Amino acid sequence: MPALITLTRRTLLAAWVALVGIVLALVLMAHVAGFLGYRVVIIRGSSMAPAIPLGALVFEQTVTPAAIVPGDVVTLALPGAAVVTHRVIGVTNADGRISLETRGDANASPDPALQPATSVTGVVRFFVPLAGFALAFLGIPTGILSILSMLGSLLAAVWLLEDVEADRRTRGASPELVGHGLPA
């Protein structure tokens, strides 16, 4: 029984350390990206699956419109505050204005309208699957409260099990406690 308590305490402590590490890694990743010249975008749709899955955290860099080529995955700021991340399938240059034909990898047909290259906020360089879900969760008050509650509960359980272990060691070392209704 003492070995099971120790194993449980160590497992809960490892879970606490892992949760703290994941939260710190996500927050640092999102903040350090800006210093390295990347913009972070959370993929909120499945139009780019399976290449970029729903919930991925995408890191993109700003480029000049002339540097965009077919095959690039770009994020576009569309009218009405919509943001879309799609693959460029064609580039046209009419009257000095570069326009892009885009399509989500999961979509059967191209997007209905050409988009001006000036609406591109960045070209996707890499992504981390599922990290966007976690970062979005940390971006809402209930998410922060949930994480803090989990950390507090895990820490309280570790401390409780440490007390149980200390109590068992104390009782085992004191033979006078045996026979007074206290288990050894």
Describe, in plain words, how this protein is organized in 3D:
The protein contains three helices and seven strands. The protein has two domains: 2-26 and 140-171; 37-129, Umud Fragment, subunit A (Ribbon). The chain has a seven-stranded antiparallel β-sheet. 41% of the residues lie in helices and 24% in strands. The model has no long low-confidence stretch (mean pLDDT 92). It has 184 residues and is of the alpha+beta class. Helix 1 (2-35) runs antiparallel to helix 3. It is rod-shaped and about 90 Å long. It has helices at residues 2-35, 131-138, 141-173, and strands spanning 39-42, 57-61, 73-77, 83-94, 97-103, 115-116, 120-128.
List the SSEs and their pairings.
Blueprint: H1 2-35, E1 39-42, E2 57-61, E3 73-77, E4 83-94, E5 97-103, E6 115-116, E7 120-128, H2 131-138, H3 141-173
Antiparallel strand pairs: 1-2, 2-7, 3-4, 3-7, 4-5, 5-6
Helix pairs in contact: 1-2, 1-3
